[in-house]
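Every protein is a chain of amino acids, and every chain bends into a shape of its own. Below is the pair of lines this work produces for a single protein:
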Amino acid sequence: PTSGLDSYMAGHVVELMKELANQGRTVISTIHQPSSAIFSNFTNILLFAEGRTAFIGDISSASSFLSSCGYPCPPLYNPADHFIQVLTILPTDRDNSRQRVAMICDQFSQTPYAQQLAAQTPQLQHYNPGQSSPYSPYTVGWCAQFWALLWRGWLGVRREPKIVKVRLLQTIFTAALIGLIYFGQIADQAGVININGVLFFFITNVTFSNVFAVINVFCVELPLFLREHHNGMYRTDVYFLTKQLAEMPVFVLLPLILISVSYFLIQLNPDLERFLVTVGILELLTQTVISYGYLISCLCSSLPVALSIASPIILPLFLFGGLFLKNGSVPLWMGWIKYLSWFLYSYEALVINQWSGVTNISCLDVTIPTAQQNSTERCLKSGKEVLEELNFQEENFLFDIFMLAVLLVVMRLVAFFALLVKTKRGKCGWC
């Protein structure tokens, strides 16, 4: 913790560590060549040399032990500097240095305290990573990794309350603004156009707000993840799963606020069941969109690259959503794109939920053509005609829900395997 700090700041950091220790916490620190003032703050010390334990115990006993080995600390000399000099392998005198270190380590291993520690320490099974082994390379089990990473992820969310508050205020403001703009829609021809438009706006808003909220999750933390994973701290699947679970409460709450505030201001279908279905569709859409963000984040090694490719991929899916291009009106060789579009599946499901069973759409706002005028404006008198106008079918509702779930699962699985490949290859990604 004192690397790169001057003597004053290093001493201040160590004093804070000592205060934490006095509060009952266990503080373990690696420190190199501390000053005598800093060294005096520590209570216990562990000296390593050539991969062996040269001493462990009370800091006041370390000098006494080395004195018993024939290497007393000179008067008015920093004990830390003395320990380093005694245990260092000198390039100009390697043989004697190794013999000195081996003698000190052997003598410590014969002390009653060292033998007591050896009796209390379980024997570890070591293995060669290049060979097959029945022993796990991880320090703790799956459940312990899961709860530790889940807690760390949740703390990461809590440490940034301003971001959460800003997203909440942004969602409330957007919901109120849309509710006021589309306030009090009625079942007439203008209302059909407005309601269909606001339903597509919900999809667009959920897509872009959530994709760019998670697209940095894995690519930014990739160096830290690879280092900790290769050190045997946790598994890839545990890390991937806990990152999602830690952030899930926020992503569940935001679409709920969006639709709850604006739904009744706009006066969409008043049935409670229709409202709950709308909430469910938007929640499922949110998780699908987040899956896409995770996928791009796992495939790319840097945030700028991820941001540069995310939008171009979304654009064709957006156009095939059913509002700007009528469903089924594109050439066959491009028709396959719509099957990958969560815009289309969620828009069709929302429109079906809104207009299914509606039979009393007014035609009073339709201009009646005169003998000198030709009008191609069609009066949509029922929800079934609204669906036919968009080339949607009521029986596709469950299929739309199913396809959203399929896209959610498939994209998250591909994202996980992309992250897994990075751990196997030790590379940063394909883009």
User: Anything to note?
Assistant: The two ends are 35 Å apart (CA to CA). The longest strand covers residues 52-58.
